[in-house]
Amino acid sequence: MAQAIQLTAPNGLSYSQPTGLFINNTFVPSTSGKTLKSINPYDESPITEVASATADDVDLAVTAAREAFTSVEWRGLTPSERGLLLLRLADLCEKHEEILATIDAWDNGKPYEQALGEDISEVISVFRYYGGWADKIHGSTIDTGEAKLAYTRREPVGVCGQMIPWNYPVMMAAWKLGPALACGNTVVLKAAEQTPLGVLYLANLIKEAGFPKGVVNIVNGLGSEAGAAIAGHPGIDKIAFTGSTNTGREVMRAAAANLKAITLETGGKSPLLVFEDANLDQAVKWSHVGIMSNMGQICTATSRIYVQDTIYDTFIKQFKQYTIDNSKVGNPFDSSTNHGPQVSKAQRDRILSYIQTTKDEGAELVLGGGGEDTAAEKKGYFVKPTIFSNISQTLTAVREEVFGPFVVIQSFSTEKDAIAKANDTQYGLGAAVFTENITRGHRVAAAIQAGMVWINSSQDSHFAIPFGGVKQSGIGRELGEYALSAYTQVKAVHVNLGTWL
Ligand code: NAD
């Protein structure tokens, strides 16, 4: 199998798509000859095949990363030089932004304009942001008296195994690579099997930016094979995983074998509360953004909406109309489209089965509720924006993450009732509160069990602000300065200044 293939995307853009595993700055075939097929979710046509890693390939990648970790070429760099490599990578991503966005739209199904303006734009910002951090990571001195000089060093953790999901293929890679590299670690990264192409193109840019060989290794492959091999590998010091809560549990179990450091970004069932004193137009607009963006495939999607009973009917009427007026379902490469297909047949079918269960459990369908039969396209993994109302806390779709353009709406009576309903979940990732009462806004934000709370917005995260969850939504934080703690370990140095034995 060739290690690159010339492809022409549906928007006419031609480029060279790497198809191998990226180990030691070289694209290589998998030792087993296994491949993964990448499918265009818009029309179900095959795009290309790429190498699929087995445990043996992961072993090779870990060896490369281990050697690079102690190499002069990498560890001999000054922090400023490391930062410069990230800044160069950001510039290269900017130069190649149209190709990266095209690949993401093609492989994942997300609208091209969003891939370009949101995903890849954030990729560039994240690499710049962490490029800036690289020479600002330092320890401290601790005064324990004249007889001792004590100081701390913040050192890289070592070889990091990173597993990412398919919903933001290149952006999730940037969230993980940025802080890991700024801190001086080396990486073995595995993209999701549904979207392997973007990170392979990124690999080209990593090499071109000047990262020494072995610093970043990319091994696409099945979660059960390559992912499991990374999670359990004794040569890996830290795992950073983004994906479902169940897989996160498995990864944690495997990582326990050699007590790897671990950060998990897992599932969510984030609540959005609308109080009667809210600016209703704003609440409607952000509620739509909160669940329909990226076709609902966002871990922080505000998928449970709770509206105060005094404005419940009005909210539902307005929300339904806004969703009808603002959902342009169609071809990801049409500039008018803001809602493409779901990433895969399996995800589409999963969402449709939740829709059926929700109907069977007696909720009221307000809008949508279908896939193929009602979709604007004859082919492709489409699900129409779907809204259910009159639900109860016991409904399956209130308890479980659907990960689609699917929202359930319920009323609440008092602030206490709203908080109790919001917190009645195993998850704790995001939450949103709509109120014009500043005191209430902060009070509710404090009472909600979540890693992130938006007051009067939803989903407008930022790379400088920590991102992560509580309860079964994860462990640790990504982004911002906080991510640097996840990729460094503290060494204390004691210098004896006078107590000779
Ligand atoms: P997933 O858990 O199936 O897969 C995530 C990644 O883990 C993929 O790369 C997959 O190949 C790999 N994997 C699967 N099984 C594995 C195993 N046994 N060992 C090691 N790795 C394994 O999730 P998904 O379907 O790709 O993504 C959807 C889920 O991700 C949703 O539940 C969503 O909430 C979650 N998600 C969370 C965040 C967050 O930041 N909290 C962000 C995006 C997605």
What's the total helix number? 16
**Might you state the CATH topology name of the largest domain?**
Aldehyde Dehydrogenase, Chain A, domain 1
**Strand fraction band?**
15-25%
Give me the count of strands.
Answer: 22
Please state the oligomeric state of the protein chains shown: single chain
Q: Please tell me how large the radius of gyration is.
A: 23 Å
Please tell me what the overall shape is. Answer: globular
Structural description of this entry:
Keywords: Oxidoreductase. Belongs to the aldehyde dehydrogenase family. Residues 27-493 form the Aldehyde dehydrogenase domain. With 501 residues, the protein is α/β, with parallel strands linked by helices. The chain folds into two domains: 21-26 and 54-266 and 476-489, 3-Layer(aba) Sandwich (Aldehyde Dehydrogenase, Chain A, domain 1); 271-460, Aldehyde Dehydrogenase, Chain A, domain 2. The protein contains 16 helices and 22 strands. It has helices spanning 55-69, 72-75, 79-95, 97-108, 112-133, 169-182, 197-209, 223-232, 245-255, 280-292, 312-326, 345-360, 396-399, 415-423, 438-447, 482-486, and strands at residues 4-8, 14-18, 21-23, 26-28, 35-39, 46-51, 141-142, 148-156, 159-163, 186-190, 216-218, 238-242, 261-265, 271-274, 304-308, 364-367, 386-389, 406-412, 430-434, 452-455, 474-475, 488-496. It has a seven-stranded mixed sheet with strand order 16-17-18-15-14-19-20, with helices on both faces. A six-stranded mixed sheet has the order 11-10-9-12-13-21, with helices on both faces. Strands 7-8-22 form a three-stranded antiparallel sheet. Strand 10, helix 7 (197-209) and strand 11 (216-218) form a beta-alpha-beta unit. Helix 3 runs antiparallel to helix 5 (112-133), helix 4 (97-108) packs across helix 5 (112-133) and helix 5 runs parallel beside helix 6. The longest helix has 22 residues, at 112-133. The protein is globular, with a radius of gyration of 23 Å. The N and C termini lie far apart (67 Å). The model has no long low-confidence stretch (mean pLDDT 96). Nicotinamide-adenine-dinucleotide binds at residues 163-167, 190, 192-193, 223-224, 227-228, 231, 242-244, 247, 250-251, 265-268, 299, 401, 403, 429, 469, 474.
